[in-house]
């Protein structure tokens, strides 16, 4: 199974995948049954690109800002061109799945259509909350500020909505009285690293099965 990983920031989830691919991670999930063929970022300064290069993985920055300026703020046109650039990069590799790992741009329905895989798109995301609670950009803050006593991590297929696609797996972690949002984030991230690789492995092993329940696609692991 070949994957491309999309990052916008520090890329610690990407690093966790690389470590597992190299058999260098300690923890629960110790291997990654997929080849990371390319890493793409919407920001040239994303440290995730550097992590990829250090391991000889082709790394590309697609400058959304350039296209937004070029089209004088017309985001629809800008996103279309940025995504065309992404598609032309991905065409060089035989990509089965795109894994979003802290990627801060929405992918348009036109882009997703290129990755149709049966009942889903071949694009997966990790979200730092127990969906459908706390979608959006601030999963850890929202969980902590709500006073939750358990936080959650969700890995799901991407659909046309925001953090709404079919859930592959979730995991929870406790939140203790002395926690801060930062200590919660660290605990959650260590769960993210295990859960994301586990889900990629299940996909590579073709262990996902899909059913339709109340007009939603529901996934079980077999
Ligand atoms: C993670 O918390 C992920 O769940 C969220 O963005 C963060 C990315 O962190 N979507 P990193 O770049 O992998 O360190």
Automatic annotation (TrEMBL):
CDD domains with a match to the protein in the record: FMT_core_GART
Site (described: Raises pKa of active site His): 163
SUPFAM superfamilies: Formyltransferase
UniProt-listed Enzyme Commission number(s): 2.1.2.2
Classification via Pfam families: Formyl_trans_N (PF00551)
InterPro entries from the UniProt entry: Formyl_transf_N, Formyl_transf_N_sf, GART
Ligand binding ((6R)-10-formyltetrahydrofolate): 75, 104-107, 125
GO MF annotations, alphabetized: phosphoribosylglycinamide formyltransferase activity
GO biological process, one term: 'de novo' IMP biosynthetic process
Residues annotated as catalytic: 127 (proton donor)
Superkingdom of the organism of origin: Bacteria
Reactions catalysed according to its record: N(1)-(5-phospho-beta-D-ribosyl)glycinamide + (6R)-10-formyltetrahydrofolate = N(2)-formyl-N(1)-(5-phospho-beta-D-ribosyl)glycinamide + (6S)-5,6,7,8-tetrahydrofolate + H(+)
Listed GO CC annotations: cytoplasm
Binding site for N(1)-(5-phospho-beta-D-ribosyl)glycinamide: 11-13
Domain called Formyl transferase N-terminal: residue spans: 2-199
Pathway: Purine metabolism; IMP biosynthesis via de novo pathway; N(2)-formyl-N(1)-(5-phospho-D-ribosyl)glycinamide from N(1)-(5-phospho-D-ribosyl)glycinamide (10-formyl THF route): step 1/1
Keywords linked to the UniProt accession: Purine biosynthesis, Transferase
Family under the similarity heading: Belongs to the GART family.
HAMAP family listed in its UniProt record: PurN
Function according to Swiss-Prot or TrEMBL: Catalyzes the transfer of a formyl group from 10-formyltetrahydrofolate to 5-phospho-ribosyl-glycinamide (GAR), producing 5-phospho-ribosyl-N-formylglycinamide (FGAR) and tetrahydrofolate.
Name of this protein: Phosphoribosylglycinamide formyltransferase
The gene coding this protein: purN
